[in-house]
Amino acid sequence: MTFATMIVMIVALYPVRAASIGFGAGLLATLGVQDRFGMGWWIGVGVLLMLTTVAYRLVLFERSTVAQRDLDNAQGRMATRLVAEFETHSSGWFWQTNAEGEVTYLTSKVALELDLPDTPAIGEPLSQLFRMDGALTETERTIAFHLSSRTAFSNYSVRPVSRAKLERWWSMSGRPIFDEDGIFLGFVGSGTDLTERRRADAEITRLALFDGLTGLANRQRLRLALDQMLAQPAMSQRMISLFLLDLDRFKSVNDTLGHQMGDALLKQVAQRLQRAIGDAGLVGRLGGDEFQVIMPGHADRDKLGELARRVIFDLSQPYSIEGSAISIGCSIGVAVAPQDGADSETLIRNADLALYAAKGDGRGIHRFFRDELLIGAQSKKQLEDDLRRALVGNQFYLAYQPVVDTRSERIVGYEALLRWEHPTRGLVSPAEFIPVAEDCGLIESIGEWVLRTACSEAAGWPGDVRVAVNVSPIQFANPVLPSLVTSALAKSGIAPHRLELEITEGVFLDESAASEQMFKTLKGCGVRLALDDFGTGYSSLGYLKKAPFDKIKIDQSFVKGATIAGNRNAAIIRAIVSLADALGMDTTAEGVENHDEITLIRDLGCSHIQGYVYGKPTRAADVLLQLEVGGGMATASGYQITRNPRTAMLRNARIEAGAASGDVRIRNISSTGVMIEGIEVDEASIDLDVLIELIEDQMFPAKLRWASDGRAGLEFAETFNLERLTPPGVPQAARKAG
Ligand code: C2E
Ligand code: MG
Ligand code: MG
Fold this sequence. Notes:
Layout: H1 3-13, H2 15-35, H3 39-89, E1 92-97, E2 103-106, H4 108-114, H5 126-129, E3 130-132, H6 137-140, H7 142-149, E4 153-160, E5 170-178, E6 184-193, H8 195-209, H9 219-230, E7 240-248, H10 250-257, H11 259-277, E8 282-287, E9 290-296, H12 301-316, E10 319-321, E11 324-326, E12 329-337, H13 344-360, E13 366-368, H14 371-392, E14 396-405, E15 411-422, E16 426-428, H15 430-439, H16 443-458, E17 466-471, H17 473-476, H18 481-492, E18 499-504, H19 513-525, E19 528-534, H20 542-546, E20 551-554, H21 556-559, H22 569-582, E21 586-590, H23 595-604, E22 608-610, E23 618-619, H24 620-630, E24 647-657, E25 660-669, E26 673-677, E27 689-695, E28 698-708, E29 711-716, H25 732-737
Parallel strand pairs: 12-13, 15-17, 17-18, 18-19, 19-20, 20-21, 21-22
Antiparallel strand pairs: 1-2, 1-6, 3-4, 4-5, 5-6, 7-9, 7-12, 8-9, 10-11, 14-15, 14-22, 14-23, 15-16, 24-25, 24-27, 25-26, 26-29, 27-28, 28-29
């Protein structure tokens, strides 16, 4: 490389240095010419080189400082823009305090919220603006604590100190700042708005604790409140009255008028209930048409009863919904803590049992829980378990009661009545176990057994003697019924017109297209249909138009007492008969027990009679005997005049009155009462409620009506079927002779 090339490269790579060297070299040349390369000349060269390098460095430094400043400015602007963007358009904000804890910076949206007319947020101590969100006093001091101890904190839930700004929640974090020398400068931090989230949380809580339709407390809230009240330490605070309400006939309103009307009705019910209870308790809806009221504090039964009656009255007044007047009723079960249950579960169960009793006693009333209700429920459960075993254990049989043509006195058919021979309890009345079987779903299989057995037993009867089978509304609602009927007919070989299905008014509670279709299909099978127990149930005549009945069975309650002068039953029977005649239907008077009644029923124009007067229900084998002996004719037996036949007997029986019990002798018994002896009672005991053992180990409720000379008369709470005193299977003739 030549010297010239080297110079060129240096100039190209380091132009500034080359320029300074060049400049230096130029100076050297000038000085060198004058000094002719002496000492002074060399010193001059050195100084010049140094100066040139310094000048060059200064130029470079100047250039990089300007560039850095430009960069810093751009970044600063960007950061400010981003912070402003964040502060305005997000839920976040910033804050800063000085060493004294006074706010020096606060994002303006938060500052504006906290500004009071006399105190602007900036300059205020931080702890005067925000307080911890929480009821605990020790946490309330936490912000001040961190400020004074100069320690960081994060994600604290805070609210405005000022009460006027209550509806705000923030999450706040902060850390202390120090300068390079470690001097404390204050706090810097950030926050986010939690208000919306809090509101959403509150809404979720509200939804979880309140009934969406009525705005009342819901099941969870009621349960929570009850649990809390019952867990109070003081006994006096645990005194709670619980009302359980169920609307009567709500389902039919809902089904016939639609859910919208049903919902509107429930809202009005809720308002009325809330108004009736006022501040006395917590009102809630459990779901459907079930409501609950929890009332704290001691209340005596009279007052609770009065309140329950008022609630029932209020809720039973007509409602106006979309221009229609709607009437419903209400039943109430009442349980009182702690005596009826010290925990929620027991108390609710017992109120439920009381409600069940209120419904069972006719609805539209209230009932208090009593221990007997629980015993009743337990024995019902026992009955259920026993029923499950009954069918497989062959404990059922059918008893047949003759149905007699009023004019010819010929037996035209028999009603099949189910009998249950319980292994330990003996004969159990169908009136007792059929409702249980309906409740626990066993009625389907029991009903099928009845249908098949009745058809196959009737197949052995002569001629056209019919068999009537009771069909529960639950069976009627099941679409398989027609195929069951045709199968039973086919298997037994009896003609369809010989089978009569007895249906109670209960089927019309569900007045749906399905039930209309069921009537049609059954009629299509060729069987006869009878309306059983007419006048006891739903009793709307409208359905008689639609349902193709062949017969109306007038309930025995109308026959009872019909012969007594001044009794209106005869007039009612006459009206039913003319109605049935007009519709081309037969009529059967049920429960005819004596000759006078036969005469009356005949005079009133009933086409058929069924009752003890022509025979009690007997075993299938006796039916053949009865038909053979009488040549198909019925023989009336019994009394000429209407009175309760008394059966003389002498038997020891247990009697209980409250906690006391003892043995008495039964002198005679009728279906309504019993005369006992061997008991000394005073005047004060008249109308006393007692229990008497009529059948071994079975106690029956009764009232003591009179007492004298060691004898007393008890009136039964419910009619007692005297048949139950006779062991099953004893033929009618044998019973009469005995
Ligand atoms: P029901 O269908 O009205 O049957 C007539 C009831 O009246 C029978 O009671 C019968 O014994 C009774 N009875 C008949 N004549 C007289 C009388 O002159 N005086 C009195 N005091 N009573 C009389 P039972 O057998 O106790 O049956 C009661 C109810 O149980 C029946 O009333 C029926 O509703 C139901 N039931 C009976 N068997 C069945 C069945 O197989 N299926 C269904 N679903 N229910 C049944
Ligand atoms: Mg019947
Ligand atoms: Mg009946």
